[in-house]
Design brief:
This protein has 23 helices and 21 strands. The protein is α+β, with helices and mostly antiparallel strands and 673 residues long. The strands form five sheets. Strands 10, 11, 14, 15, 16, 17, 18, 19, 20 and 21 form a ten-stranded antiparallel sheet that branches. The longest helix is centred in the middle third of the chain and has 25 residues.
Length: 673
């Protein structure tokens, strides 16, 4: 038995040309292998209508011709499986050779299809933009959450089509009018019925939930646009323009400080708006609308910072925070790889919460014709039928376009490209199979087993120091380094076994030499299996002498407790004849600890939002000679091995980059989204 999943979607090759590849993947592969784009095999390309024909006929006829052309392509692929009797290889089996040359009788079964909504509507023969292809909910009602909609089945929908043909055998328009209340086209799809395979693929239940298209390119940008448009309506154009520029500058500085995100936001959020295309000098001057974004990573990275932005952007509108909190909780549950009836019930509840909130905040007019908004309520239905979304994901088939369409296109003359691309892929894949067969046939050299590699520990970046400077000159190089001498001597004092900081600085140990070998940052080798380490990145920069704007925020395990701080300087030095790798850190305190230190109440700004708030710690004061004064910035020294991972500390939108006492929030969405 060979169970397969198919996927097809149009992709752009240039401004004028596109391709429509169809892929296949075996469900017998291990789940993680199935998620790799290299596991998807290109079957071919759907034909496209000539551009001259499209320009010369009406849009309605173009849609009808494209639908007919698509059905012909599907019939060509599955023609042998639509036959009855002994000629059907799906019933009788087909003779195939495995990788070792052994002949097997293989029974092929189509189990699922991965499509964006236009392809799903074409395959299910439902009316595009007029009805749901999973249930019979019609446009104009998509904004309401109906938990018990009647689901379509192959048998029920084929029955309606047969009734239409029986009632109106001579009139195509009458058949169309008969099927319209059910959201159906009056034609049948070859997918609808495979003779003798009644328990196999059902076109309505076999369409996987397209997470990339339905969520990251569907509802998410609409919610963000709706939020910004509501703000745009309530303020003047000049005020909104200033607010937009502050959002861009905040996101640029925030993204630069957190290295794990792939997007970086080097040009802010407005870089992805249509307004940036119209006028790059004033992207916030038009109605906010996202342009075409080709990667879901951009939307995921926006998710990582959107809620912490809302804390200060809309401080007096908690209903927006509630909407996105429910929506992001729903996305987290949707992305789970393991589900039970309890988790799916929670998924449905969160879906109902954010749907109701979105309609209440943005108005039903934004959603009543948006099928992707409505499809979210069927997510649990898809998971029950096909398993976790991660293993039937449209993002994987989208990534397959790189080898299935974009690379082959570069090897054509850009005219009548489909046959040329198909020939290129055929030859490339044949060569890969031949190389793989040769590797299996040739004897592999016996390699002695290697001993297990010794574990590596965190170390400073760079084989050579960036600079070698005296301790005294380093303390004068930047205001943040003024307390470095005290921090070094206190660290050595505690490392020598002291149980408290109560000592005169003159009595504390010193380094063997005042020479400091400065390094650019920390290279993490420990806890690489921790998702926080992976998301934060292995390279943590921290050298204020080199670049002040590139200082990382880190989490440190010290004395059994977890501390957060800003990495200011990394260096090596000599102590007792040995080289020590040290980090100079400016510590954070929670806002509650900061308020207690100054004997004040928490401010409204510090109490906002669901994120833990922090400020830079201040020195509590001491009676001993040489210690910093009370209220001075609190710095400390730690060993490189105590660093855990990069901490997603995000500065408040209301505080300038050079504010005297900025407020930071621990943005846990950066880890969880």
């Amino acid at each position: 038995m060979l169970a397969v999943t198919t996927a097809y979607d149009k992709t752009d090759l240039s401004k004028e040309q596109g391709a429509f590849p169809i892929y296949l993947v075996s469900n017998a592969l291990p789940l993680d292998e199935k998620r790799k784009r290299s596991s998807w095999v290109l079957l071919g390309y759907f034909s496209s209508l000539p551009a001259k024909l499209v320009a010369s006929i009406s849009s309605g006829r173009v849609t009808a011709y494209r639908r007919a052309l698509r059905l012909k392509g599907l019939e060509a692929i599955f023609d042998s499986y639509l036959r009855r009797g002994t000629e059907n290889p799906g019933l009788m089996g087909a003779s195939m050779l495995d990788a070792h040359g052994v002949e097997h009788t293989v029974y092929l079964r189509l189990m699922a299809g991965i499509w964006d909504y236009p392809e799903a509507a074409a395959s299910t023969m439902t009316l595009q933009n007029s009805t749901c292809y999973v249930c019979r909910r019609m446009a104009g009602e998509f904004q309401w959450y109906h938990p018990h909609d009647r689901l379509r089945t192959v048998a029920s929908e084929m029955q309606k089509v047969r009734e239409a043909w029986a009632a109106h055998p001579q009139s195509a328009s009458a058949r169309a009018a008969f099927c319209r209340p059910y959201g159906l086209q009056p034609e049948q799809n070859p997918y609808h019925f495979f003779p003798g395979m009644d328990g196999g693929f059902g076109v309505y239940s076999g369409a996987a939930f397209a997470r990339l298209h339905n969520v990251y390119e569907g509802t998410l940008p609409r919610f963000i646009e709706g939020t910004l448009r509501l703000i745009q309506k309530q303020v003047t154009a000049a005020e909104f323009n200033r607010a937009g520029k502050s959002i861009d500058s905040w996101l640029i500085s925030t993204g630069a400080g957190f290295k794990s995100i792939g997007t970086g936001f080097s040009k802010g959020l407005s870089h992805y708006f249509y307004g940036n295309i119209l006028d790059s000098n004033n992207p916030w001057g038009t109605t906010v609308s996202f342009g075409k974004i080709t990667s879901q990573d951009v939307y995921k990275d926006i998710c990582r910072f959107w809620r912490v932005l809302l804390v200060d952007l809309l401080p007096n509108a908690p209903e927006f925070m509630a909407l996105f909190s429910d929506y992001f909780d729903w996305i987290r549950l949707l992305n789970n790889r393991h589900h039970t009836e309890a988790t799916l019930a929670r998924l449905d509840r969160f879906c109902e919460f954010w749907m109701d909130a979105a309609v209440r905040l943005f108005g039903k007019e934004l959603f009543w014709r948006r099928i992707k908004f409505h499809l979210a309520k069927h997510a649990s239905h898809f998971i029950r039928l096909l398993g976790a979304i991660d293993f039937a994901d449209d993002a994987t088939s989208e990534a397959a376009h790189i080898e299935g369409a974009k690379e082959p296109w570069t090897h054509t003359n850009h005219r009548n490209v489909d046959p040329q691309m198909a020939k290129y892929v055929e030859r490339r894949d044949t060569m890969r199979l031949l190389r793989l067969a040769r590797q299996h046939q040739s004897p592999q050299p016996q390699v002695p087993p290697f001993a297990a590699a010794a574990p590596r520990y965190n170390e400073l970046m760079g084989q050579r120091p960036v600079q070698v400077r005296e301790l005294g000159s380093v303390t004068r190089a930047h205001p943040l380094l003024a307390r470095l001498t005290y921090a070094v001597r206190l660290y050595l004092h505690l490392a020598a076994g002291a149980i408290s900081t109560d000592a005169h600085v003159r009595d504390m140990p010193t380094l063997d030499s005042d020479a400091l070998y400065l390094r650019p940052g920390v290279h993490l080798y420990e806890r690489l299996d921790d998702p926080k380490t992976l998301l934060g990145g292995r390279y943590l920069h921290g050298n204020v002498v080199l670049k002040e704007s590139d200082l990382s925020f880190i989490a440190v395990r010290q004395g059994g407790a977890l501390w957060y701080g800003q990495l200011v300087l990394c260096f090596t030095a000599l102590y007792l004849g040995e080289t020590v790798e040290l980090l100079y850190v400016r510590w954070f305190d929670t806002v509650r600890a900061s308020a207690r230190a100054f004997n004040r109440a928490l401010t409204e700004k510090e109490l906002r939002g669901p994120f833990e708030a922090y400020r830079f710690s201040v020195f509590p004061g001491s009676y001993f000679h040489g210690h910093p004064p009370t209220g001075a910035p609190h710095f400390g020294l730690v060993d490189v091995s105590s660093v855990l991972y990069a901490a997603p500390m995000v500065r408040s939108l209301e505080d300038a980059h050079d504010a005297a006492d900025p407020l930071y929030r621990l943005n846990t969405d950066a880890w969880e989204m």
